[in-house]
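BUG: 3D viewer hangs when loading the predicted structure for this chain

Environment: internal workstation, default settings.
Expected: structure renders.
Actual: progress bar stalls at 90%.

Input used:
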Amino acid sequence: MISSSQIQEQIRTALTQLESVEAAWLGGSAAFNRTDEYSDFDIRVLAAKEYSNEIYEKVENALRKLSPIAKQHIVTKHSLAGCYQRFYWLENTSPYLVIDFVIVQENVLYPFLEQNRHGIPVILFDKNNKIKPHHSNADLLANFSARIPEIISEFKVLSSILVERAVIRNRFAEAVHFYHTRVLSLLLELLRARHCPIRQDFGVRYIHWDLPKEICEQVDVLYAVSNFEDLKTRLTQAQKLFWQTADEINKY
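Structure tokens produced before the viewer hung:
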């Protein structure tokens, strides 16, 4: 079975042969030193947009020398303009080993290197010394803090109405949808604002590292909904935790 270290060396060797690639580094679990047998392989490459096709062709040819590419997904519009992303699954590897390959243009490099949000990059090579991890600037935290009143207002107005109305109408899927989008998502954002504000926008990602153990256990329970009675109970519990957290934030 092909290992992630073999994939890393194959990609690194291929990329160093391209003048268009200035740097390559690992993010994700590797950047936090938390890699296990279920981790993705998250690789980031610094290069200009016009070289993206050349880079992907080089990388895909290199991967095929290791193994056939079983599946591939091309992200047509990345959440951050100036980035180009593809996912690969190889045969003869762990079924959980996803290669997440992102080409990053220099004008959007800054947020990728925020070490308090994304960890310390594992640099494969850096031709011009441009991969310099740093801490997020104060504006980001200020923007997160400014959003707290909006979170509380939205929760106060919409958290119960949309869910309870769907329950009354006997529309379970709709009720669960609003429970996730109008209750749990806002609760998670507020919990992060209280315990890990630098990653306030990360949703459920990394919560078992970012939030206290007892809070994570409560959140796990809140996601366990299989019928209307569960939903009613969990909604009450979620509301209680939300307002407790809001009170704690107001005290600081």
